Amino acid sequence: MTRITILGAGTAGTTIANRLARRFSRELRAFTTTITLIDQDNEHLYQPGLLFLPFGIYTPDQVVRPRDQQLLPGIEYIQQPIDRVEADRDVVVLSDGRTISHDVLIVATGTRVLPEETEGMTGQGWRTKVFDFYTLEGATALRDALAAFEGGRLVINVVDMPIKCPVAPLEFAFLADWYFTKRGIRDKVDITYVTPLDDAFTKPTCNQELAHLFRDKHIRLEREFNTGTVDAANGRLVAYDERELPFDLLVAVPLHGGAEYVGRSKGLGDDLGFVLTDPHTLQAECKPNIFALGDATNLPASKAGSVAHFQAELLEENVARYLVGKPLKPDFDGHSNCFIETGFHQALLIDFNYETEPLSGTFPLPVVGPLRLLKESRLNHLGKLAFRWVYWHMLLPGHDIPLVSPRMTMRGKRPTRSASAPTAG
Fold first, then answer.
1. Is residue 138 domain-shared with residue 199, that is, in the same domain?
2. Residues 36 and 67 sit within 8 Å (Cβ to Cβ)
3. pTM metric for this prediction
4. What is the Cα–Cα distance from 247 to 217, expressed in whole angstroms?
5. In whole angstroms, what is the distance from residue 5 CA to residue 65 CA?
6. Rounded CA gap, 262 and 150, in Å?
7. Which of 312, 313, 310 is nearest to 336 (CA)?
8. Domain shared by 8 and 119, yes or no
9. Same domain, 21 and 149
10. Contact, 351 vs 363, CB < 8 A?
């Protein structure tokens, strides 16, 4: 009997569970292999939808579905919090004391927001003057706050990296510009984007090619701001270097960390709770029969849904190879592909990996595209909206997406005039 256990039934965990269920369908029917998926609740959240929810584009019922209904037959779903992983014993200990043994363990429990780690953030202004949109509760509360906002200083603050979907805070700023323009009060709203980085985007090429968006939309950019304290009572965001920014409404992107149980699991994660993972094979460092993917890893790849899908496509093969004693394939190259909403029914598309900066060109096909890279278009915006269907009906069920390779391809791409040295961020 081969026992495969997967921790986390989000994007990464559900996708790899379904891919493995399809791969080992015969073994599942013969009861020679089991696939067990564990998570603490039964609500699967379509996280890209949280960006749209505050602006009334999506509603909560459009972004939440039952986790167990996204799984193929043969996958056992256990709803229970995880207490710890005991790698030396090949067991997962659940909060109710049960132990689940495994031959292969896959960690896909993602990342969580930690607003309480920033002084004052969850104080008296929390969810009345200070909000996040990385949780369903936060995005819903922010929707109501934005609807009631009649003008003043709107500050979007990224506390630190890494975060889920690094471009989402930027998209929020651009969508806010559009939202208040549609309401006819844009001239009454001062929007400031605050980042601890030395520029807005994490990729140098994007900073050079897309800096005009801030100028065009009259969004102020505050760089290298390391948030120390949120003073909601006086409407102040205070940095460690004592710089202060006033706000009437603060949209915070809190500190992120790995799942809490990782810290109780000897040798599994780093100080932030992210699983120490080989950047190319996705094998965990603590033991050969443990793998990790998605937001749960410490890899220098974007914590985004496309990355989880590309990793799952490659990890499926490595799990199969591990089980028969074959060498693992070092095939994951950090490939990430994401749309960037810019408002007014427009969006950008970027495609990159560990070594290659986002390039201009067409995607997924040369010349015909039909999508354009590093260029705003309505078709890119429609692609972003269409991704919700793709997510529920192709990505989660574990199907390959036609024409989109898990490894980055140079097909249709061309260097930008400002292309810089490769980065791994």
1. yes
2. no
3. 0.95
4. 19
5. 22
6. 43
7. 310
8. no
9. no
10. yes
